[in-house]
Amino acid sequence: MSVNGSKAFARGLTTLAVLVVGAWVLGSLLQATLPNYFTGILTFVAINSVLALSWNLVSGFTGQFSLGHAGFMAVGGYTSAILMVRLKLPFVVSFVSGGIFAGVLGFLVGFPSLRLAGDYLAIVTLGFQYIMLAVLNNTTDLTGGGLGMAGVPFRTYLPVASLTLVCTLWLLSNVVHSKQGRCFVAVKEDDIAAQSVGINTTYYKVLAFIISSFFAGLGGALLGHFTMYLHPDIFNYLKSIESVSMVILGGLGSLTGSIVGAICITLVPEVFRNLATLASRIGLTEAGDFLRRGWMVFYALLFLIMMLARPKGLMGGRELTWAGLRSLAGGFAGGKGGRQWPSSK
Fold first, then answer.
1. Which residue of 7, 250, 324, 331 lies most exposed, with the fewest beta carbons within 10 A?
2. Does position 28 have pLDDT exceeding 90, yes or no?
3. How far apart are CA 291 and CA 281, in angstroms?
């Protein structure tokens, strides 16, 4: 490794260490000071962000459309829970094993099917998800079958979820800015042109699918150790659609956009739920019932308006950076930099 390479590697490790410590300290402070309701919402935001980041890698950066990510979440969640409950393995080992097993299945699914593209690939990955649900429903002794698996140890505290999110974002950011990441984008932009310049498109599609499946598995493990209960219906096709919605709303090809989308998709139902409760408490019972029963209509309208106003998502493929935030602050203060936000770097 050259001197410049060693310095860059050292800077990367330093940055990761600072982010890890910062995420753990901030998560611990919030866990200690906020009510359980708010820490629960923040934990769900972190879990959904990990899922959205994983889906964005395979679809936003490599151009493959997967509808089976909830299946990989299920693999990670059940694997981690079974290893911890049945084999009494430590949480960290079970948690990472859940991601690894999901990555292995990602390879087994991706290798034969990623020669397909578009609708055909989406159908194959959706088929994988249904296969996983059938397996989980019929392995009663191991997974609890249709009754679900109760008694999963609670380990997804807010600091753990924050730490996982930060590490996921850091690792995927390094991947997409590496040689492999540029190959992912080349495959996405023009498959045939990428092949003509010597890029092994199948290899990079499978690689992106494995990495994406690994992080989806971690998201599933976080979810299982947060809800303390797993059921196959939690990981049905709606969960996959939810991950697609988060990325489309935040912006395809934008890592920070994935997190923005996850925040929106997680918070909007909570906002309507609280508005319904508030309306009922102040005597507007019918309005509260209407909001409680019809919030999905408002949800769909908000999504429709957002897509009409910003069809490329809120971030539009750009990333939110520290420089961009400083530029935004300068823009609010009347400085010149406001026009430059968000940064595309």
1. 7
2. yes
3. 13
Burial class (CB in 10 A: 0-12, 13-18, 19+), 188: buried
pLDDT of residue 197: 86
| Exposure class string for 240-276: b at 16+ Cβ within 10 A, else e | bebbbbbbbbbbbbbbbbbbbbbbbbbebeeebeebb
DSSP 229: E
Q: What are the two backbone dihedrals, phi and then psi, of residue 48, each rounded to the nearest 5 degrees?
A: -65, -35
Residue 82 confidence class, pLDDT cut points 50, 70, 90: very high
For residues 121 and 212, give the distance between their C-alpha atoms in angstroms, rounded to a whole number: 15
Condensed to tens digits (0 to 9), the pLDDT of residues 284-303 reads 777 777 777 777 787 788 77
Written as six digits, the tokens of 114 are 């990623």
Q: Can you read off the two tokens belonging to residue 163? A: 């730490």
* Half-sphere exposure of residue 313: CA atoms within 13 angstroms, side-chain side: 28
